Amino acid sequence: MLELAILGFLYDTPLHGYELRKRIAALTGHVKPVAESTLYPAIKRLEKAGLLDRATEPGSVAAPRHVLSLTEAGRRELHRRLAEPDPRDISDENRWFTVLAFLRHLDDAAAQAGVLRRRLAFLEEPASFFYDGDRPLRAEELDDPFRRGVLTIARATSRAELTWLRETIASLGG
Amino acid sequence: MLELAILGFLYDTPLHGYELRKRIAALTGHVKPVAESTLYPAIKRLEKAGLLDRATEPGSVAAPRHVLSLTEAGRRELHRRLAEPDPRDISDENRWFTVLAFLRHLDDAAAQAGVLRRRLAFLEEPASFFYDGDRPLRAEELDDPFRRGVLTIARATSRAELTWLRETIASLGG
DNA sequence: ACGATATACCTCGGACCCGATGTATAGGTA
DNA sequence: TACCTATACATCGGGTCCGAGGTATATCGT
């Protein structure tokens, strides 16, 4: 998820680590903060894998900046991660939102629609958080008000997203 | 999140690891699967910390079961984790849902309302995923249909949850 | 002159997580 | 007979993540 965000932001324009940190904080930080001690090693990983280039520039304010840019391999890797997301990227909303935030970088509309269709299939499966044996329970069947809340919220999300997915897939010519 | 689920399920009734695994899979597994090799070490951690007791029983079908039950310290720890959730438990929906799934174990209605109020405060803060400088952007201001989708879905979730939170806090006498 | 804050990067240890793999037993099925 | 699935537990290595702490420079307020 973090690596996808790094690749996604750098696809648009080269950035140094500190600026990257601020952009990632703006994107997902209010929900899932990312520590500096997570970001810098992640940058090193991607650099070591040949996906990033580093160019040292004199710092405009303080210490020298390491301006990062995607290599050709990095651009390909971003496309690969967007076109063939991990199952977790589909099911986990945090990761899914990160995919959506950068899906425009996949310039093929059919490939974009394919990714949306995978999320659609996931949401259309009958699933709950609470079961009676194998049968998924509905909000109305629960006594616990907090568990009822979980289902109420999840259902609202699911409805909004299903509507949006179907519209968007249609508008992509899928 | 995993540890909270273990403590939460065992609060109701003793269970062996394999059954615990199935319950956790039913609760959060469709969104965020938990591997066996994550569960068993987590059980050991909690046991080592004195929160769990283990009693070996002959297996009803196959290998002998290790039936796990909460110690008094384990019950206190669950209450503590529910009453004073980590900030991440409030902001991250996956973790928040786990808190909600077991919040009924906190028998004090005022404490329950306090936890809901923390989530309410988080949702009432003006936040987005995308910004123009410091100003959070609305869905309508975005050209990118995928990013617009993120905000559309997030807004639907937020609205449903705000309504539910306010109702539930009121009904708790908060 | 002093401290706080922002910029800009980094390391270390410990905790956590996962995939792969292993060890058994029992039941079904080809 | 052979294999697959389910039950039930566990370890190992590699990787990821975070909090705490460290190193500088520049700016601003007091």
From TrEMBL, chains A, B:
Where along the sequence do coiled-coil regions lie? none
Note the superkingdom of the native organism.
Answer: Bacteria
Which InterPro entries does the entry link to?
Answer: Metal_resp_DNA-bind_regulator, Tscrpt_reg_PadR_N, WH-like_DNA-bd_sf, WH_DNA-bd_sf
Tell me the ranges covered by the Transcription regulator PadR N-terminal domain, including all copies. Answer: 6-79
Q: Enumerate the Pfam families for this protein.
A: PadR
Show which residues constitute the signal peptide: none
- Protein name, per record: PadR family transcriptional regulator
Q: Which organism is it from?
A: Streptomyces cyaneochromogenes
